[in-house]
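Regression test case RT-17, inverse folding.

Input:
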């Protein structure tokens, strides 16, 4: 499965770039001996951002694969694959 929608792809890329910046910021906070509370707060924000970008990708997957299955793919197989991927991510 690929993220085919140009809007979804751009959204995912923006979100990942923002997450990348947040991770760099936390690394700098550690280097600068910042307070653990501040670091944990930023890590929670990163975790939330990763969950949100995951939802964008899942929505794209659902709309593309469930609504437009490839030849020979049953919706049941697609749903099972999605559940498998989500259970590993959880």
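Golden output:
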């Amino acid at each position: 499965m690929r993220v085919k929608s140009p809007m979804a792809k751009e959204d995912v890329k923006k979100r990942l770039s923002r997450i990348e910046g947040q991770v760099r910021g936390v690394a700098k906070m550690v280097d600068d001996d910042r307070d653990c509370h501040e670091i944990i707060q930023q890590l929670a924000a990163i975790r939330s951002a990763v969950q949100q970008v995951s939802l964008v990708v899942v929505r794209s997957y659902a709309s593309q694969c469930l609504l437009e299955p490839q030849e020979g793919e049953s919706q049941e197989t697609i749903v099972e694959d999605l559940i498998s991927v989500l259970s590993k991510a959880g």
